[in-house]
Amino acid sequence: MLKLGWMARATDAEVFAGHVKFARELDLDVIDFHLGGMPRDIDFVMKIKMMCVKAGLPVGYLGGGSFVGPLDMRDDRMEQGRADVDMTALMGGQMLRVFARHNWPDTKEEQEYFWGPMVEDFKALSDYAAERGVVIGLQNHDNGSFCMTADQALRILSDVDKENFTFLWDTGQWLGAIGSHPRGEFDPNVDLYQDYLVPTAPYAGSVRAKIYQIDTGVETYLDYPRIFGILKDVGYNGNISIVYEGAEGRNKCTPEEGIALATKHLRKVITEVYG
Q1: From residue 46, how far is each of 38, 42, 92, 187, 252 by CA, in Å?
Q2: How many CA atoms does the CB half-sphere of 9 hold within 13 Å?
Q3: d(Cα 85, Cα 97) in Å, to the nearest integer?
Q4: What gap in Å lies between CA 181 and CA 228, rounded to an integer?
Q5: Residue 79, exposed/middle/buried by CB under 10 A (0-12, 13-18, 19+)?
Q6: How far apart, in whole angstroms, are the C-alpha atoms of residue 47 and residue 203?
Q7: Angle (deg, nearest 10), helices 255-274 and 224-233
Q8: What's the rounded Cα separation, in Å, for the pair 255 and 247?
Q9: CA 57 from chain center: how many Å?
Q10: Could you give phi then psi for residue 133, rounded to 5 degrees?
């Protein structure tokens, strides 16, 4: 059964606690956290973990960083990655989200210069995570990254080839798609659904459901009946994480109202598509 959750982007301890309460009020099935603003002392971690337990909210994934870039920073990236894996395990999270975010070079030689070390580090991180019961989820992202197209995503998955290395399927952040940058603009030669979502859906280990314009009660940038149809066709039955990016004047409602509208909208679509 699909489980609907929300990516909570908190910046301090009090906000984290409020987000758990908010997710419970929305009757969500799971909650995800961004590690960037999370305090890491054990007292705080146990407080939030107990709040999740009492609210009946399993932790889906925790958002970590990128593993491609200047080679002299590899050790720093790996040290942070191992710390993020440890935090994910401590929180009882299923998955650590990782990126392949770095400017995509113009030449094949430069691309391969970064590609090999990136794959090696994903393999090493996956091995470390496997010993701690954590899945590594690669998320696609635009802005000239190493995982902004289906071909790039599928190549990384094939090259890493680890049982606990999966794909965190983001519905909006693809090269030239309406949900990339700048928001609302898109390349007319790009078909988000056929070019990106259909080829990668069979590899989805978790889903980030982007919400951009929802104040009418229906997401207008992305066709969620079609998206869930793609997921159903490949037998997807995992977590769906609402990722609200409805700021920048696109909605008249508040973020909290937008997330509530997204919850209602996606539950309706899931029922209609999955039955």
Answers
A1: 12, 6, 11, 46, 37
A2: 9
A3: 10
A4: 24
A5: exposed
A6: 34
A7: 50
A8: 7
A9: 18
A10: 70, 30
CA–CA distance, 272 with 261 (Å, rounded to integer): 17
Task: Please tell me the pTM assigned to this model.
Answer: 0.97
2-35 pLDDT per residue, tens: 999 999 988 778 899 999 999 999 999 999 999 9
Q: Is residue 1 very low, low, confident or very high in pLDDT (cuts 50, 70, 90)?
A: confident
Closest CA to 229 of 171, 271, 273, 168: 273
Distance, CA of 124 to CA of 152 (rounded, Å): 20
The one-letter amino acid code at 236 reads Y
Q: What is the mean pLDDT of residues 46-75?
A: 97
Distance CA 36, CA 50 (A): 20
What residues have CB less than 8 Å from 18, skipping those under 6 apart? 10
pLDDT in tens, 98-124: 999 999 999 999 999 999 999 999 999
Residue 78 has pLDDT above 90, yes or no: yes
DSSP 175: T
CATH of region 3-274 = 3.20.20.150
> What's the chain's average pLDDT?
96
One-letter amino acid of 158: S
User: Beta-strand (E) ranges in the chain?
Assistant: 3-8, 30-34, 59-66, 95-99, 135-139, 165-170, 204-211, 239-244
